[in-house]
Amino acid sequence: MKRIPTQHFPRMRKQGLVIDDLPNEVLVYDLERDQAHCLNRTAALVWRACDGDTGAPEIARRLRVELDAPFNEELVWMALDQLEKQHLLEHAIAVPSQFTHLSRRQMIRNLGLAAAIAVPVVTSIVAPTAVQAATCQQSGNPCVPSKLCCSPLGCNPCCFFMGDACR
């Protein structure tokens, strides 16, 4: 068997991230890109296994044991592709061509419904910067359509529709 040099093995990115482990998922906030990512249990297990010394076949074997479910190398490559697109790996990886042709839907059909719970999912959103999140119109000022009203009771969107002053 041909050994792949370790520099081609995936390595999880640790710098510039805030990581919060929750039951059955991991939340990752990318400080450099102001993006939040939610990794389901499967994607999180793949990501945590990316130590730079372990290849996709070994990661798949570990996940079969951990999840006690069918988990093949194709699912690992799907997860790695998602992780790489969200900049959660240190270096870009090249997904082998034999693993790039199937969509998630086709893969679930091939694996069957029972194995569908093992499909890795990375959900991402762009988070507002601190300045954007803190921008609101103070009480008593005329409404500005691009700003929410500041209120001790929370944002008051009525001024968007009424055109009156923030309350």
What is the structure about, briefly put?
Helices cover 31% and strands 16% of the residues. By secondary structure, it is of the alpha+beta class.
| Strand residue content | 15-25%
Structural class: alpha+beta
**What is the CA-CA span between the terminal residues?**
71 Å
Helix and strand element order: EEEHHHHEHEEH
What form results from the Cα inertia axes? Answer: elongated
Rg over alpha carbons: 22 Å
Q: Report the biggest beta sheet as strand number plus sense, adding barrel if it closes.
A: 4 strands, antiparallel
Q: Using DSSP, what is the number of strands?
A: 6
- Work out the oligomeric state of the chains in this entry: single chain
The strands making up the biggest β-sheet line up spatially as: 1-2-3-4
Low-pLDDT sequence parts: 1-6, 158-162
Number of helices: 6
Mean pLDDT: 76
- Percent helix, as a range, is 25-40%
Give me the secondary-structure topology.
Blueprint: E1 17-22, E2 25-30, E3 35-40, H1 41-49, H2 56-67, H3 73-85, H4 104-111, E4 122-126, H5 130-134, E5 136-137, E6 148-149, H6 158-162
Parallel strand pairs: 5-6
Antiparallel strand pairs: 1-2, 2-3, 3-4
Helix pairs in contact: 1-2, 1-3, 2-3
What can you tell me about this protein's structure?
With 167 residues, this protein is of the alpha+beta class. Helices cover 31% and strands 16% of the residues. It has helices at 41-49, 56-67, 73-85, 104-111, 130-134, 158-162; strands spanning 17-22, 25-30, 35-40, 122-126, 136-137, 148-149. A hairpin with a 2-residue loop joins strand 1 (17-22) and strand 2 (25-30). Helix 2 (56-67) crosses helix 3 (73-85).
